[in-house]
């Protein structure tokens, strides 16, 4: 078979509208990008402590603009100040916008310094917004026949798109043209202002017409042609409510249009012809970069300029009157995204190995495949990735796989691509044509050639979310070890700072926009499964994934050492994929009959509850409709507390509203809550669980996500076994459907009060530590301390209150929250919290120290060194900041608990094997592990699992695990 080699440049051009010919002008929305850069990157500080995360993000955007787009005409435009001519039109315009976060304020001036250091035009105009200057310059450039690119994703600028003007979203590396504007607003760019005038803008406090959103506004403007025509003909509208809104608020709509319409004739501070890229003062640039602490960037710039002689000692000065030598290309080369992109979380950055071009080979013969296997054996490392026909690994059929042994070179091995008219695939297939495309290696041959290398201990297999690939390979008869996982490396280094998908990290670290799944399979009704993708397109997509994975490995693995995260990665995260993959493959048996009976019971009870609700409402209505329910509660029954949404015009009937009404003694609210809870259980579990049973195994195989939470906890989906409610009788019944096969029991072992034990240990609360060390009832001990009574005099009510306070404090509960939980006045609840913190003063000290650490660093740490990012800890808004502070207090506790149970999970397989016990670990639900155990081994297994879990960490208080077993999960817990 002929060999098909695909070559692609490493850094793809932005996707979208092509540029017009001519001398393009790039107008950068500086003010808009500052905030995007600030929120996109975790907190960073330069050596003197000045925050620089937004500065770094902004600088990278400028550098990419200069390097990738070869821009010759650029201007960076900023807002002058909040007050401008729009405030005279509408006094409340942007009036409710909060002050910038405290750590962003000093960066405004630094970002202007960055623009100056790169010698780019920096523009602002008093009395006008940046958008007005951009609009003015864009129109002036078009009058000269020049194309314009507005570097921004701000929706307010989309009214300018068209006639040689486009936008570029620098975060997504995507152009925005008329099609993208229509997709967002439902109208062409020339109608955007009219739609915005109707819909308003809560961010800028543009009033619009209350109750009319973007979708409705687009429909109206499309039908009537313009805002003015609509307002003049509003009386023709059939919908009475809509007609009244438009007639009543016509003047507000006209004012809103003046607010959103950009001024295209502002007095420009610099002529458009002078907005050009000029060579920077290289020494000034280097000194500025050094001041920010961007050390690796400095080294790169100095190396490039030294080649050009710009920084050489004794370099000949430029003769008087002669033009300065243009070394702008040297600066561009230093920052070319194909060669260098600094790591977002590090102010100094580190070069990422990225070749200028790629060579991707389509492997169609056994000989070609063997050659790649030989390369991997020689290199001792290979990046691997599988392509399948399903996101669920236990149902996925292998369609192909990719390998890479050095950056820029990768291959794709197709095994099950089908002809376009072939039917759907199903199950594993080691033989037969099945409508397969020609030019593919039989799966049996792929297994035979690959297996020795995949299992070889001397070859490291690197994957991104390798757990998925391990399951796919295993189901196709291929064992894989040892492995490394770039997703987990990124997760350890940057936790909740951003997502950890391969495409996102490729963009973040390599400056590379990867081919997306949608690019090769299409979207919506036109989407095809991956096994129908043509081989050349599949090769470009899949080989790129292996290539990017290997480059990420070469960048992230050394960072683990530099940032002292090796132990966390090697001892907790790296061993997990193989263990979790085995758990997912085992699955858990579910009794269909139990589910069927529960569904029937729930359905009958829902009918009765609905009848009760209708009786209390004095009429029938759709209980599941929030709008109808709100009208019943607040318009017809006249219950207190009704609040309408400014966006929808409907009453809020969320759980907090209903719970408040129920506590006030309104039975209809409680019955609606009962109806909602039972409906959720029926739809989410008793009905849906049966659909999740794998037809090949007869079991449910949940998917555990390893890098989805900020604290290190695993999360579960398809189905989500971690969200099954266990505090209500109905919720506990769901676990009765999870059963053991004949001759086995389900064994549940969970940590007892682990988070409270960790609070006592981490905060150094002597009284609580003593209670745990002596085996005293900690809630009774707390009640004695807080309420001033002897332990033996603590009754059930005081113990209940102490228990609520103990666990509430961990989550930063407020006086109001505690009052709601205990059903007591808020003043009394606040007093309880005050007494608690006075008695356990070490906890208050720990909380304040933890919040301060989070404010300084942007993250907190577990006892095992895991960094948990705390977004919004410096937010100027009180509620957001308070929420972040609660996160900061809880994350080290919850994260340490997650680390501990992971350590136990890693030790258990070897411990069980050494004891010759046949238990299978099936599920992890926060602090609990579930096993399937032969009847004869239950007690021995329970003792061993308890011993391993209790020995997973050494604390200042003892860890305790409790075990139970039975035929079902409900009976075991």
Automatic annotation (TrEMBL):
Query: Gene name on record?
Result: polA
**What binding partners and quaternary form does the record give?**
Single-chain monomer with multiple functions.
In what residue span(s) does the 3'-5' exonuclease domain sit? Answer: 360-561
Q: What are the GO BP annotations of this UniProt entry?
A: DNA-templated DNA replication; double-strand break repair
MF terms in GO? 3'-5' exonuclease activity; 5'-3' exonuclease activity; DNA binding; DNA-directed DNA polymerase activity
* Keywords attached to this entry: DNA damage, DNA repair, DNA replication, DNA-binding, DNA-directed DNA polymerase, Exonuclease, Hydrolase, Nuclease, Nucleotidyltransferase, Transferase
Q: Protein name, please?
A: DNA polymerase I
Q: Which domain of life is it from?
A: Bacteria
Q: Which family does it belong to?
A: Belongs to the DNA polymerase type-A family.
Concerning InterPro entries, the annotation shows: 3'-5'_exonuclease_dom, 5-3_exonucl_a-hlix_arch_N, 5-3_exonuclease, 5-3_exonuclease_C_sf, DNA-dir_DNA_pol_A_CS, DNA-dir_DNA_pol_A_palm_dom, DNA/RNA_pol_sf, DNA_polI_H3TH
Q: Where is the composition biased (Low complexity)?
A: 1-20
What are the start and end residues of every segment in region (Disordered)? 1-21
State the reactions this protein catalyses: DNA(n) + a 2'-deoxyribonucleoside 5'-triphosphate = DNA(n+1) + diphosphate
EC number(s) per UniProt?
2.7.7.7
* Biological source species: Aerophototrophica crusticola
SUPFAM superfamilies cross-referenced by the UniProt entry: 5' to 3' exonuclease, C-terminal subdomain, DNA/RNA polymerases, PIN domain-like, Ribonuclease H-like
Question: DNA-directed DNA polymerase family A palm domain: from which residue to which, for each copy?
Answer: 731-937
